[in-house]
Design goal:
By secondary structure, the protein is an all-alpha fold. It has one domain (about 5-205). It has helices at about 5-20, 25-35, 35-60, 60-65, 70-95, 105-120, 125-130, 145-180, 180-209. GO terms for molecular function: amino acid transmembrane transporter activity.
Length: about 210
């Protein structure tokens, strides 16, 4: 349900986008290095889940309507930034004993939810799906624009999930020696808190900009 003639161009654009550092890459890499591959994998799945939701919204045209409302976008900027800031504050205020262990399923669940919600509340992700996917919708095939955007978005999410799994494997391997370091374990919550604060400032800068 996509025009095969434009598929090579689309795949090239997707690969370039995946290699571009962004807040999602920062969250997945830092969680993998801090808490291991399991948590990183769940963060990747949370990111992929939000991508699928945004794809469906874009295909239905709902996200396009939201993108046209400055007030809705401003609200998303504020809510997303506030949510990330709260997560950062909670991590910075936590004690050493609050850091989740690698085998702690609640840690994996927590980072799945954080990746999911932070990406859904990121208006730039919403606008990206509205602006990027339609560029590759073709009038040369019988599929509707919504059907083509759905397939294009699902392909993007599949490639993104594969890339994030590779990122988790690399970051998890590099982070393993750190996980065995008692001093690093003492401050890893502070590190993650700093990551969330940076992400929140990045999102809030769009609100106040």
């Amino acid at each position: 349900m996509i025009d095969l003639a434009i598929l090579p161009v689309y795949l090239t654009a997707v690969v370039a986008l995946l290699l571009l550092p962004g807040p999602d890459m920062l969250l997945i890499a830092s969680s993998s290095m801090s808490y291991g591959r399991k948590v990183g994998l769940f963060a990747s799945l949370g990111n992929a889940t939000s991508g699928i939701i945004l794809t469906v919204l874009a295909a239905m045209g709902v996200s396009a309507l939201i993108a046209m409302s400055p007030l809705a976008l401003k609200a998303l900027h504020l809510l997303g930034g506030a949510y990330l800031l709260k997560m950062g504050w909670d991590c910075l205020c936590s004690d050493q004993g609050d850091a989740p262990e690698l085998s702690d399923n609640s840690a994996a669940k927590a980072y799945y939810q954080r990746a999911l919600i932070s990406n859904l509340l990121n208006p730039k992700a919403l606008v990206f799906f509205v602006m990027f996917l339609p560029q590759f919708v073709s009038t040369n095939i019988e599929a509707t624009s919504g059907e083509q955007m759905l397939v294009l978005g699902l392909l993007l999410n599949l490639l993104g999930l594969t890339f994030n799994f590779l990122l988790v494997a690399l970051a998890g391997t590099l982070g393993k020696p750190l996980l065995e370091n008692a001093k690093f374990r003492t401050y890893q919550q502070k590190v993650m808190g700093g990551v969330f604060v940076i992400l929140s400032l990045w999102m809030l800068s769009s609100f106040f900009g």
